[in-house]
Amino acid sequence: MEKDDSELTLFGALDAFPGDPSRDVCPARAIRWDGENLVAFVVAGDCIGCGLCVSRCPYGAISLGDELTAKVETADPDGMVVAGPANGEHPQVNRGGQIATLDAPAAANLPAAVMALDDARTTLLVRNLLNEVGLNARTRRRGDTNMRIDAVGFSRSERPFVAEIEIGAGVLESPRALLEDVAVLHSRYGYAVDAIDPLSVILSFPNGRSEYYQVIRDIEKVLGLRCRTITVGALVALLWYCARLDGFDGDSFTVGEGTIDLADCLGLDEAKLAEPYPGAFRPAK
Ligand code: SF4
């Protein structure tokens, strides 16, 4: 299960950004091929239960459901809508429905599973999640010391964004790093500063009293730049509900004192009811 060239292409000057060439859809490389029985299978011990493969499989053969990890079946196990193959050709991916509910064991297990991934796999997970929810994203080529922006891309409204991916303790540094990223995108690629959306992709929101929110507010007050925040849990929620993110218009994904709740931005009614894990939509109490 691999991405094709068109998915890894960025339009305009940003196509020169040195990107990770990996075509893997599965960030954990958990999908293998059984050459004897000619079927794909998932190595449960490697699978993090993200649901990316469920979303991509054109035959609806992979499911998550109430399981902790994905599994491959020969019939459509979850009744999701798939495009029918025409003239014996490989069908296009065209899914609707729901991969799993946000109270599934795989959702609760995400923080531990993501923390266990190495940096390269974590970055691949984020890139593929951004892609699947409708953002044309490219993550930095590993080992490229001339570039420190973690990811760049375009929303569906064709506004460029820069992203910092901070899964661990680096969250507090993320807004400051975004300032540098915006400067680089402006000076090297020619995009106007006020046309760039800076985005932090984090695992969980810091405590509500954290300096993180103050720095974001200061940056907006002094420089007029609105730093956005989205969590891996929020991206997974969008993926599991087969929803798409058009962009970062208005107040979307801008967090501040008293207004920290991503469930309000996702357009998913049910998302309010079940946070996939503490800190995914709002600071954990
Ligand atoms: S659920 Fe995610 S980690 Fe598991 S096999 Fe599918 S893509 Fe890989």
UniProtKB/TrEMBL annotation:
Query: One Pfam family for this entry, by name?
Result: LdpA_Fe-S-bd
Q: Which UniProt keywords apply?
A: Iron, Iron-sulfur, Metal-binding
Q: Which residues form the 4Fe-4S ferredoxin-type domain?
A: 38-67
This protein is called what? 4Fe-4S binding protein
Q: List the source organism.
A: Sinorhizobium psoraleae
Question: Organism classification, top ranks?
Answer: Bacteria, Pseudomonadati, Pseudomonadota, Alphaproteobacteria, Hyphomicrobiales
